[in-house]
Amino acid sequence: MNLALIIIIVIAIVLAIVSGLGTGLEFLLWVAIIVGVIALIAFLMRVLRKNT
Questions:
Q1: For 14-45, b where at least 16 C-beta lie within 10 A, e where not — what string?
Q2: Which of 4, 42, 48, 52 is deepest in the core (most CB within 10 A)?
Q3: Cβ distance 7 to 38 under 8 Å?
Q4: What's the CA gap between 40 and 24, in Å, rounded?
Q5: Residue 23: what pLDDT?
Q6: How far apart are CA 50 and CA 31, in angstroms?
């Protein structure tokens, strides 16, 4: 797996945990979700390119 993709996934998880702990930091939850979705799309595109 690409190192950058792993870093993006870790950042998304950390942001999700931090936003869950902070009541005033709700926007971080949305950032974590967006970053996670981008990482998932990048992973799927990488898998699809390998298969074709």
A1: ebbeebeeeeeeeebeebbeebbeebeeebee
A2: 42
A3: no
A4: 27
A5: 59
A6: 29
pTM over 0.70: no
The 10s digit of each residue's pLDDT in 20-40 is 666 566 777 788 889 889 988
- The residues spanned by each domain of the chain are 3-47
Mean pLDDT on 3-21:
78
* CA 48/CA 21 separation, integer angstroms: 36
**CA distance from start to end of the chain:** 17
